Amino acid sequence: MTYAKGHGTGNDFVILPDPDGLLPLTPRLVAALCDRRRGIGADGVLRVVRAGAHPEAVRYAGAAEWFMDYWNADGTYAEMCGNGVRVFARYLTEAGYAAGGELTIATRAGVVRAVVTADEVAAGLSKPRVYGQSVARVEGRRYDGAAVDVGNPHLVCRVAGTRELAGLDLSTSPEFSDADFPSGVNVEFSAPGVVAVPGAHAHVRMRVYERGSGETLSCGSGACAVAAVALADAGLSAGTVAVDVPGGRLTVVLDEETCWLAGPAVIVANGTVDTEALDVRLPGPDGSRPVGVAGAGAK
Ligand SMILES: N[C@@H](CCC[C@H](N)C(=O)O)C(=O)O
Prior knowledge:
Elements lengths: L1 E7 L2 E7 L9 H8 L9 E7 L15 E7 L9 H13 L6 E7 L2 E7 L4 E6 L2 E10 L2 E9 L3 E6 L3 H6 L7 E2 L9 E7 L9 E9 L3 E3 L3 H14 L5 E7 L2 E7 L3 E6 L2 E7 L27
Parallel strand pairs: 2-3, 4-5, 10-12, 13-15
Antiparallel strand pairs: 1-2, 1-18, 3-4, 5-6, 6-7, 7-17, 8-9, 8-11, 9-10, 12-13, 13-14, 15-16, 16-17
The ligand N[C@@H](CCC[C@H](N)C(=O)O)C(=O)O binds next to helix 2 and helix 4.
Subunit structure: Homodimer.
Enzyme class: isomerase
Main location: cytoplasm
């Protein structure tokens, strides 16, 4: 099986080119590919399939040629992945599947635009919807947060400063309310940045524990959620926010309708993987293709 590996600010993905949707992708194969010791290692998988060749995306085929079939490292799949869209666009361009410049990409959360330049890729996600309050707990300590929908679910918790942010133990999932987030949630912790960034209304630092992947170096949809909350806290509904994640800097520009997420996105390897050596059981001769369901817990 051929693959590529890429990342956006350290949020890394195994990319599986499968234009005609023939690959028997299962939750178990995804988890094996993402295993950092026994597989290739990644936060998730991006399957590159024509929208017209995937049952979940065929309705978008008139608006986008390609569907980003995104899976978390644990074999569940999610509605949206902001860094995934950016890396997907970079891959399409470098692999010759798209001309570059501006393109549209179908996702489970709808069609998004991407703009590819030499230094970065920007993705136009739907505007984050801040819709409620909830809490997370880390090592018994309570953090109040805002529930935000970016196509996928987020809980943005504010912490006082960068020292507290750095000290959080995110080696296991923060506790959250199953009632508030029945399909699980990505939990972001955000602290005010210490330096003013030219052109930005706000500068924040964030860490994230991703549903289905654990702590990652970056989360694009999470950065959009954090930016929306930072602007709302400042009484703004639009503006530019510099979001520093452990893997680098993302820039989020919110206007009245769209959330533009920009930063570096690179492809670092192309190769082949021996799926039998991964010790996964592929679907049987009946051709059945087991699939996950959106959100954590699908196996
Ligand atoms: N890293 C992604 C988000 C991936 C999906 C997430 N783990 C979920 O289950 O919703 C991003 O860059 O947005």
